[in-house]
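PROTEIN DESIGN WORKSHEET
SECTION A - STRUCTURE
LENGTH: 273
C-ALPHA CELLS:
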C-alpha cells in the first residue's frame, strides 16, 4: 500500500504539499471585486462543465479530479476569498485507508477536499442518491464510485454504508463521511450521527476527524447549491490526528464532536480580531 501511495502522490497534481496551507492576502480586482458571486459561479461551474463529457464517457481520471479541485481553490482566491488548511501531514503520514469524519456546511467541501486528499490516498464520499442525478454534479460524482444512501430509511442507509464502505476500504479507498442529515451552517451535535464511527469499527481502520467552515459559499434558499458567495468569510479545514475505535465508539464520537466545536469556536474568534 505504501508503494502505491507513493506512486499516486508522484503522479497527481499537488497543491497542498506542506503541513498547512494559507491563501495569499485577499485581492480581487475589477469584475470579481464587484460581482464575486457571479464571478465565482462562472469559474467554478465552468470547471465542472468542462469535465462532464469525460465523466459521462468513463474518462474522468484521478488527475482530472485533482486538477478540477485545485481549480476550485483558485476560484475562491480569484474573488478575494482565502482558504486555510491544517493537519495535512496526518493524511500523508497514514499509510492505510481511513474514514474522514466531519461536519458538512456547504457544497464547497466536496469541491475542495479531493485535491487535499486524493494525491496521497484514493478517496471517495458517502453521498445521497439524488446528488447523482444532478445535471452538473451527477456525472462527476458517479465517476468517483461513491457510497450511495437514500436518506429516507436510516436502517437501509446504515446497511448501504457498511456494505459499500467495507468494499471500498478493502480496495484501499478512503471515505469521507458527513454524518449530518443535511448541510448546516450551524453545527448541531444532535444531528451528527455515529455512522462513520460504526463503519470504522467494523472495518478496523482509523478515523481522521475533520472540522471545516465553508460558509464562504452560502446555501441557497431556492436551490441549495446556489447561494451567495461571501469573500470576507475565510474557508477553514482542519484534520486531526488519526485514531482507532475502541469499545462501542461513544468516546471517539464525542471526541470528533469536541474537535469540530473547538475548531469552529477558534475560527469565529479569529475572525472577530
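SECTION B - SEQUENCE
RESIDUE ASSIGNMENT:
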Amino acid at each position: 500500500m505504501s508503494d502505491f501511495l507513493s506512486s499516486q502522490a508522484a503522479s497527481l497534481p499537488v497543491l497542498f504539499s506542506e503541513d498547512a496551507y494559507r491563501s495569499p492576502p485577499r485581492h480581487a480586482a475589477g469584475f470579481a471585486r464587484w460581482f464575486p458571486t457571479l464571478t465565482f459561479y462562472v469559474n467554478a461551474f465552468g470547471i465542472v462543465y468542462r469535465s462532464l463529457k469525460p465523466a459521462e464517457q468513463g474518462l474522468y481520471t484521478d488527475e482530472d479530479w485533482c486538477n478540477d479541485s485545485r481549480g476550485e481553490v483558485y476560484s475562491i482566491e480569484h474573488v478575494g476569498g482565502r482558504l486555510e488548511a491544517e493537519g495535512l501531514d496526518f493524511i500523508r503520514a497514514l499509510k492505510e485507508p481511513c474514514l474522514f469524519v466531519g461536519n458538512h456546511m456547504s457544497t464547497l467541501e466536496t469541491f475542495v477536499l479531493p485535491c487535499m486528499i486524493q494525491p496521497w490516498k484514493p478517496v471517495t464520499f458517502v453521498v445521497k442518491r439524488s446528488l447523482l442525478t444532478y445535471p452538473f454534479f451527477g456525472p462527476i460524482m458517479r465517476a468517483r464510485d461513491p457510497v450511495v444512501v437514500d436518506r429516507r430509511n436510516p436502517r437501509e442507509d446504515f446497511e448501504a454504508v457498511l456494505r459499500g464502505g467495507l468494499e471500498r476500504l478493502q480496495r484501499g479507498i478512503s471515505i469521507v463521511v458527513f454524518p449530518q442529515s443535511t448541510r448546516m451552517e450551524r453545527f448541531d451535535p444532535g444531528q451528527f450521527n455515529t455512522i462513520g464511527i460504526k463503519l470504522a469499527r467494523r472495518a478496523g481502520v482509523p478515523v481522521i476527524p475533520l472540522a471545516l467552515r465553508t460558509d464562504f459559499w452560502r446555501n441557497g434558499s431556492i436551490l441549495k447549491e446556489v447561494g451567495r458567495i461571501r469573500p470576507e468569510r475565510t474557508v477553514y479545514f482542519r484534520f486531526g490526528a488519526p485514531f482507532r475505535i475502541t469499545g462501542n465508539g461513544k468516546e471517539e464520537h464525542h471526541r470528533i464532536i469536541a474537535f469540530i466545536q473547538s475548531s469552529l469556536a477558534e475560527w469565529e474568534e479569529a475572525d472577530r480580531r
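SECTION C - NOTES
Residues 19 and 89 are 5 Å apart (CA to CA).
The first strand starts at residue 21 and ends at 22.
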